[in-house]
Amino acid sequence: MSLTVVAEEEETETGLNPESETNKILKTFKARQKKEKEISSDDDSDDTDLELEEEKEEFDVTGRNQYLAVCKALGVIPSSYFLRHMQDSALSLRHHGIGSLGAKAISFPLMNNTTVISLDLQDNWLEGDGGESIARMLKENCYITELDISENRLGSKGAKSICNMLITNTTLKNINLSGNLFTDQDAGYFLEAFSENSRLKFVNLSHNEFSDHAAGVLGQAIAENETVEELDLSWNFLRRGSTLKLCEGIWSNCRLREINLAMNGFGDEGALAVAELLKRSTTLHVIDISFNRISQIGATAIGKALDQNDALRTLRIGHNPVGVVGAKEILKGVGYEHCVVSLLDLSGVEVDKEFREMKQALEETKEIQVIHGVVLSDYVIHVKPKKAKELLFGVPVSDVNPTNILQTIKKHCQEHEIRLGETFVGMDKKKLGSVTIQEFLQGLQSSGVEVQDSLASTLVNLLDDIAPENLINYSIFRGK
């Protein structure tokens, strides 16, 4: 029996639509190969052991024939790279432009593949249909333990398919779903998936569009899950009070070890929720709350909360306007007797000489690494040299405001011959004439527009001020 026959039978067993165009063509292949086999049998009635051995060798356990047949059925050009590497234990297809039909084609041979353990499909424009094909495949495959399907614009359809798969899948341990346009409406799918799945260890949901409503739902999902140890929710829209609902779920979870909440902009209200989390959590080892507009108030609360925490190992709170006083309050917190923090990251935060002295004294009593910004001098030696002005898109930061930020970016792009408008048009699949703040930042990055790390928070704040409902009209970049 030929491999394409097996593929057709397996497809029916796994619940795929037997009347699909793919199956019809596979049936045609089956009939043709059966006829050729009968003709060959009539010509050579006396089979030898050698012929039987050769016939066995024709059975392709790799799935190559099945893949080629499905590609022909779907009108897809076969990927030579996939054909060469489909037996690799770590199969990386990132940036290959697979598309939704290509995803369907590779899903057939992968259903019964026993060698691929790690599958990387990052940035292939799979969208909802492609995500559905991969999810269907993972309901049958019991060998893949790591999946990267990030930056594929899966949307609600993809979220639903992936989450339905997670309910029944018993082998996936790591899944990266970053950058897939998931919104608050999709949070419910993850609630059910997190509640039912008992294998996942690492989940990346960063660079999506979860906001206030999703925070409560995801908090409940985290509380009910008993296996996830690392969760990345950075680069979402978890603002202010909504962070409390999320933190409530985190401190109710007894397995979560690492949480990334960077780049959400939740401010001091969120920082107070994080402080409460640190008081209650006994299992959390790593937390990242960088780039969240936390001031001295939030920093002080977090510093005091560390006195009641004996589990946290790493605290990343850099690129926040905590000020010199806030930085010292946090440093006091990690100096408490019961605190076991071994890495304090205050990158981008300016400190003074007193902070430096406190840090040196602390390093003599504890094994700890403290990262911070420049040390401000409290005295003047003659004349200070003028500090070079920080430039944002070639303009002094002090001259950039919400009124002129888009014009400033446009002028910068024109001077460097960067067609930013075309990038946004490609991202705007619904043709709304606008993109989210996250998409805007991704568009800048993919077009080669560089922003200094120290100014990233400033840019986010400016865009947030001009973006009603987190949407930016990009029409200004389409004109000359």
Would you give an account of this structure?
By secondary structure, the chain is α/β, with parallel strands linked by helices. It has three domains: 3-58, no CATH class; 76-376, Ribonuclease Inhibitor (Leucine-rich repeat, LRR (right-handed beta-alpha superhelix), Alpha-Beta Horseshoe); 393-477, Recoverin, domain 1 (Orthogonal Bundle), CATH 1.10.238. The chain is 48% helix and 10% strand. The strands form four sheets. An eleven-stranded parallel beta sheet has the order 1-2-3-4-5-6-7-8-9-10-12, covered by helices on one side. Strands 11-13 form a two-stranded parallel sheet. Strands 14-15 form a two-stranded antiparallel ribbon. Helix 10 (212-224) links the parallel strand 5 (202-204) and strand 6. The model is unreliable at 1-16, 43-57 and 379-383 (pLDDT under 50).
Kindly summarize this structure in a few lines:
The chain has about 475 residues and is of the alpha/beta class. The protein has helices spanning about 5-15, 20-45, 50-60, 65-75, 80-85, 100-110, 125-140, 155-170, 185-195, 210-225, 240-250, 265-280, 295-305, 325-335, 355-365, 405-415, 420-425, 435-445, 455-465; strands at about 90, 120, 145-150, 175, 200-205, 230, 260, 285-290, 315, 345, 350, 370, 375, 390, 395, 435, 470-475. Mean pLDDT is about 85; it is low at about 1-15, about 45-55 and about 380-385.
